[in-house]
Amino acid sequence: MATLLIADDNAAIREFCRCELVEEGYFVLEARDGAEAVAQARRFRPDVIVLDICMPNVNGLEALTRIRRLQPDAAVILFTAYDDACLHDKRSLVATACVAKSHDLTELKQVVSGVLKSRRDKTDYRVGLPPLSMAAG
Length: 137
Prior knowledge:
Blueprint: E1 3-7, H1 11-23, E2 27-31, H2 34-44, E3 48-51, H3 60-70, E4 76-80, H4 84-88, E5 97-100, H5 106-121, H6 132-136
Parallel strand pairs: 1-2, 1-3, 3-4, 4-5
């Protein structure tokens, strides 16, 4: 069973995501902000980390940077209403994917599944972000 970490400062969103992802067969950890997400990532080394960008204390992009320092190969999905940040902030380039928040978690579930499959198959997976080749240029 894959372990996911959901980090969002909104308790209702965390609970909604947790319930939906548990129904998909995942074990789900939760974090209330970026600092807690970094601590949880360090302690539990989840298979996939889902980060909101706008969170107090440590935002999602800073948490992403810190998590990548701890686990360079961590699979991190930015899950946000502010998807422009995924395209324009250079810190987002090390994310695995960026998914827009929605009342329908179909896209998030598909991306989580795709990330896990790519890990098993040892293939690259990148969704919702500019290609790394374009980002470098």
